[in-house]
Predict the structure.
Amino acid sequence: MPELPDLEVIRENLAARLLGRVVTAVAVRRPGLVQAGPADLSPVLGKTLRDLTRRGKYLIFQFGENLFLVVHLMRFGWLWHGPSRYEVTKATTLVLSFDDGTDLRLIEPGSPQIAGVWLFSDLSRAEPLAKLGPEPFSPEFTLQAFSQALRGKRRMVKKLLVDQSIVAGIGNAYADEILFWAKISPFRYVHTLSPIELERLWKAIPETLRWAKEEIKARVGEGLFDKEIRDFLYVHGRAGAPCRVCGTPIGEVLFEGQRTNFCPRCQNVSQPIA
Ligand SMILES: [Zn+2]
């Protein structure tokens, strides 16, 4: 699933290509894709793409003055941009055609197809965005706010990092990387973290995400991608491989269907909970 660093690169690269372009056609190709607004998304027709922003794992396309198309790629969705003359594949669930002869397509290979699209005229009423915690790069994401959000929680620290209401945009892969960076075991309970550990964790969140965004950008340049680029990660997806810092084999635990990777030594993991 794309997480904040992936989506930031997609957002930047799409904005460079599409801002100022006018929508000449729109086709919704899967019933149920549109979660809010007219099912055919016809209001965006003839509108200019004014802005492309991101909130958590949602991309927000602003058309005209006050029309916001919110897109969540979920697990397998990805965005394709290229010439409109290219054949539309079966897995394409949304096509937006622009006045420069290009299409932006939402592609969902395989099943289930669970990506979601919402159309709002007022973003403050956008229900999926209302539940999100602060953006890790925003001034609102202070140590004080972060500590406050964790106060009284008796949950594993990794669970809290992927909770979008605590901080927005982090998923399974970057939660592992952030915890490695912060030298904290993913199995620790948040109420057992010392103030120093808490501060280290808070700092590691934007630092890790910024680093990852730059790594991805360095690999794709102006391009888009249909699969997350994760070859540079230190722990996630590297079970059994030597830690890039200390050489200890990276550990892995499957927990509620989610893969958690960690360095037993760097993160001082004694007894992982299976
Ligand atoms: Zn290590």
In short: Residues 243, 245-246, 248, 263, 265-266 surround zinc ion (CB under 6 Å). The chain is about 25% helix and 25% strand.
